[in-house]
Design a protein that fits this description.
It is built from 2 helices and 15 strands. The protein is mostly beta strands. Mean pLDDT is 87; it is low at 5-24.
């Protein structure tokens, strides 16, 4: 799924939603989705539980934009009914980032709009990084505060074929910067910096830095 198609998929039904067929009768469901823990390390896992779909005979969930070990998008997963809760273990994204969770049921239920639910896949310490208004500010701050340099150039870097993370929530830059007392262009250094957004209406923080292209 491309970045634009994936973002349209998410924004068109933000929070909780289902896939409904034209000939099905929709019934309203007030779903409550809980992810535990809300933040995991890459290759680690979290559990999901859903309450509020008593008429459903099946419930599925998906992490939007999440890649598996093969580089393909992770599929829908089936949840199991335990009492009045649908539960499952979420699949394990291999790339750090933030992933909206989408829900669908059988039979189709019309869910109420609510705040979107995310799984955050962060390296330790990511959640403590400062927040900025734009992803470019994240890259500039890393050069200034972490590398101790002066930003000379910055541009977007294209995603790899295995990276399906939503562009609305992740931005990858390549930067060129100079260190003090080494202003010559031949002495410039480079880095690839990924910024992550804390939700569709959130601010941006540093996710990853590498001296090699992804």
């Amino acid at each position: 799924m491309g970045h634009r198609a994936a973002r349209a998929f998410v924004v068109g039904a933000i929070g909780l939603w289902v896939v409904a067929s034209a000939d099905s009768e929709l019934r309203t469901a007030h779903l409550r989705v809980v992810v535990t823990p809300q933040v995991v390390a890459p290759y680690d896992w979290a559990a999901i539980s859903i309450v509020g779909a008593p008429d459903a005979t099946a419930v599925q969930a998906r992490l939007v934009g999440a890649s598996g070990v093969t580089g393909r998008l992770l599929p829908w997963i089936e949840l199991r009914l335990h009492g009045d809760e649908w539960e499952s273990r979420l699949p394990q994204p291999v790339l750090a980032g933030i992933y909206p969770i989408v829900i669908r049921t059988r039979p189709n239920l019309l869910t109420t709009a609510g705040a979107p639910t995310y799984l955050r896949v962060y390296w330790p310490g990511t959640a403590t990084h400062p927040l900025f208004s734009t992803p470019r500010q994240v890259a500039a701050a890393w050069v200034r505060d972490q590398a101790g340099g002066t930003l000379d150039a910055i541009r977007h870097w294209p995603s790899t074929a295995i990276d399906h993370r939503l562009l609305a929530l992740h931005r990858l830059f390549v930067v060129a910067y100079s260190l003090p007392n080494r202003p010559s262009p031949t002495d410039r250094l480079g880095a690839w910096i990924t910024a992550v957004r804390e939700g569709f209406h959130g601010r941006w923080r540093l996710l990853e830095v590498s001296v090699y292209p992804p």
